[in-house]
Amino acid sequence: MFRFLKRKWITGRPIPEDLLRILKRKVPVYQLLPEKYRALLHKRVVVLLDEKHFEGCGGLEMTMEKSVIIAAYAAILILEEKADYYGDLQSILVYPDDYVAPVHQYNDGGIVEEGFESRAGEYWQAGIIVLSWKDIENQLYGEERDSGQNLIYHEFSHFLDDRYGLTAGIDDDGDVMRDDEWTQIIAKAYKRLKFRRGHTFLDKYGATNPAEFFSVATELFFQKPQKLLQENKKLYTLLQNFYGLDPIRWK
């Protein structure tokens, strides 16, 4: 009840001017949003800033500007969600660049091997999202701004996938364990990418597994909606219904 009342109080006030200036200057998608969604974005951003812990790591200074930029793109994914605000997600850890993370994988003999790899971001089921600020900057303002990639969309959509079991019915080969329309459409598109069937605008990283496919598809849906619609209308419509948004109308 306390959280509900606090959210109501926070979202009932005008967005602070300093936050609004950051949205206008540093969040490119903000200028594309219809007025209705700008108002919703304001509410989502102030709640996320209040409830989530944004922490700089590896020497990165975590400024309000950085926090607002991340919160804004995270908020896009939940504009039409009623009140969950990424539920039990607690912290967003931001490194200045790609970071080294431990990995565990099975070799051909079934033995677990430990190692390390460089990463730009990841989602931990413990309620943590990790991001590389350099990658965020490059994708929003730098050389990769027209790539169709967005690390924030990618990692926060992993949280949504995990929370709602969106790809739980598909194995890594694309075989399905559920018979619903959602699973069938995702699985078919995933297998097409995995086995390189025809031209695609989807990043090949999406062929890693169904969870990565969903996040890569989410990136393209918001970043290059016309390309996803051109390539796979059923997949576009599926994501349109899930997010409750039609970003092709924002262009």
TrEMBL record:
Any one GO molecular function term: metallopeptidase activity
Record Gene3D superfamilies: Collagenase (Catalytic Domain), Glucose-regulated metallo-peptidase M90, N-terminal domain
Q: Which InterPro entries match?
A: MetalloPept_cat_dom_sf, MtfA_fam, MtfA_N
Q: Which domain of life is it from?
A: Bacteria
* GO annotation, cellular component aspect: cytosol
Protein name (record) = Zinc-dependent peptidase
- Organism for this UniProt entry: Rhodohalobacter barkolensis
